[in-house]
Design brief:
The chain has five helices and six strands; from the N terminus they run βαβαββαααββ. It is an alpha/beta fold. The protein has a single domain, classed as Alpha-Beta Complex (Ribosomal Protein L13p, Chain: A), CATH 3.90.1180. A four-stranded parallel beta sheet has the order 5-2-1-6, with helices on one face. The protein has a two-stranded antiparallel sheet with strand order 3-4. α3 packs across α4. It is globular and about 55 Å long. The chain starts with 14 loop residues before the first strand and ends with a strand. 21% of the residues are buried.
């Protein structure tokens, strides 16, 4: 009995459309990461990129539970002494709503070149419009 490993030309990639309006950030990010990795397919292989493309619209309307919208901050460091920056969630969702979802999904993907390749298949838009109509994306329901 041999283990089946899909070849690059055998991987069937589909496009999925997800509306973020009214969805919880973490629960939505886990579903996005699952689709990007390809865990929803029977041909899932941990060391290969078997995942699909995901389009997220209405990223500016994502929600958090409890008081997280007031308490959550995003940390960055410039590399210099005292170069810490803590950006509150409210500021981040106003200025860069796509980054909020991108950072949540980034933490759920592998931290290597395979994870970076998977993140390239994630397309996030703040509004309801997206330029990927030609790919005929299917709506994600969960």
């Amino acid at each position: 009995m041999k283990t089946y490993t899909p070849k690059e030309h055998e991987i069937d990639r589909r496009w999925w459309l997800l509306d973020a309006e009214g969805r919880t950030l973490g629960r939505m990010a886990t579903e996005i990461a699952r689709i990007l990795r390809g865990k929803h397919k029977p041909s899932f292989t941990p060391h290969l990129d078997t995942g699909d493309y995901v389009i997220v619209v209405n990223a500016s309307k994502v929600s958090l539970t409890g008081r997280k919208s007031e308490q959550k901050t995003y940390f960055t460091h410039s590399g210099y002494m005292g170069g810490e920056r803590h950006t509150p969630f409210k500021t981040m969702i106003e200025r860069h709503p796509d980054r909020v979802i991108d950072l949540a999904v980034k933490g759920m993907l592998p931290k290597n070149t395979l994870g970076r390749k998977m993140r390239e298949k994630l397309k996030i838009y703040a509004g309801a419009e997206h330029p990927h109509q030609g790919q005929v994306p299917q709506r994600v329901e969960f």
